[in-house]
Amino acid sequence: MAISKDVLKVQPSATLAMSSRTNALIAKGIDIINLTVGQPDFATPKSIQDAAIAAIQSGKASFYTPAAGLPALRQAVCDRIAIEDQVQYDPSQVIITTGAKFGLFLLFQVILNEADDVLLPEPFWVSYAEQVHLAGGNAIAVKTTGKDQKVTVADLEAARTPKTQAIVLNSPQNPSGLLYEADELRAIGEWAVAHNILIVADDIYSNLVYNGNQFTSIVSLSDAIRQQTLLVTGVSKTYAMTGWRIGFVLGDAAIIKEMSKVASHATGNPTAASQYAAIAALNGDQSEAKAMRAAFEDRLNTIYPKIQALPGFEINTKPQGAFYLFPNVKAAVVATGYANTEDFVTALLDEAHVAVVAGTAFGQPDHIRISYATSKEALLTACDRLADFMASHQ
Ligand code: PLP
């Protein structure tokens, strides 16, 4: 069977694979606590659901929309970014995409030529590298040596080549939950401007920041940095709308136009009903989004000390955002006698009935990713199970 060489090189998403393995065990009736998930466990707020239902019932969701999205949604994105990041964009600088994931996919298709390099500071979200490969580029994992293992200009300079076309920055970060501070972002932004390297700023978790920490978007730091940046975000995480598949990319109007051209031949447009729902999410009352953020903060504060106290689990800095912990478990793997993190994770699933993802998929094989996007009760039980597992395997 003829299958493209480029596609054969792509790895399936490790997080989705672990999640489906977990769901298969749950379907068999096994009481697994699933901490692999990358999505809020809340239902989409009712006012947003109602907007979609009204759009369907009035008939206006029955039709194709422009490839770049409904004008009212592009405007709503500009208005929300102006409120949250104090940065003005024009709707011509916005494309609505089928999730931020497809926005990133389109972006790499548009900005990369064969064998261009894209720098990915470790740890990085699983899909970036594969999307870069699918666009013909090279994904370059960058070792990070800064505060809390964040990337520094020196780290980036060590990885830069004449083929470096872009860097992907994700703050708050999946899988570590770390947040880049304004000074760190400014240094990276100025470096990118100086070397004419595009910044892909994945701000998808920008509204999930906890315990008084402040989110800064790199686009808010200077006009030069903003002009060098493609800002990727969406409604999935903030409004519990992962299933609706609506993301946005904001930046240079010429790049956005090319992305719209590619989208017009791919998806055509993101689902109309979802776009109407997203308008309601962005323009409407933000109190439910705030309540969900507060629930995540409470869960982080509950689970963090318990995970930190597990023997052989090391987290140096309390995460400030997203909904993941990313402990280094090398000592736990050694103490329990497993050959590697994958085997350790499999044993956690089979014996402790707790599902997590091995860090290999994020470029850091000594770590595991624990999602706390589930109830506090389930999280507390999972912590007890992990503690029992560690106690019985020493
Ligand atoms: N970026 C990061 C870092 C993510 O974790 C995710 C989802 O897991 C996405 C982008 C994509 O979000 P969506 O496609 O649901 O908008």
What tags apply to this protein structure?
single chain; 394 residues; alpha/beta; Aspartate Aminotransferase, domain 1; Aspartate Aminotransferase, domain 2; 2 domains; seven-stranded mixed beta sheet; three-stranded antiparallel beta sheet; 12 strands; 44% helix; globular; binds pyridoxal-5'-phosphate; PyrdxlP-dep_Trfase_major
Task: Describe the overall structure.
The structure is a single chain. The protein has 394 residues and is α/β, with parallel strands linked by helices. The protein folds into two domains: 5-43 and 288-392, Aspartate Aminotransferase, domain 1; 46-283, Aspartate Aminotransferase, domain 2. It is built from 15 helices and twelve strands. Strands 2-8-7-6-5-3-4 form a seven-stranded mixed beta sheet, with helices on both faces. A three-stranded antiparallel beta sheet has the order 9-12-11. Strand 6 (198-202), helix 9 and strand 7 form a beta-alpha-beta unit. Helix 4 (71-85) packs parallel to helix 11 (272-283), helix 5 (99-111) crosses helix 10 and helix 12 packs parallel to helix 15 (376-392). The longest helix has 22 residues, at 287-308. The radius of gyration is 21 Å and the shape is globular. It starts with a helix and ends with a helix. Pyridoxal-5'-phosphate is lined by residues 38, 99-101, 125, 170, 174, 202, 204, 234, 236, 242, 247. Belongs to the class-I pyridoxal-phosphate-dependent aminotransferase family. One of its GO terms (molecular function) is pyridoxal phosphate binding.
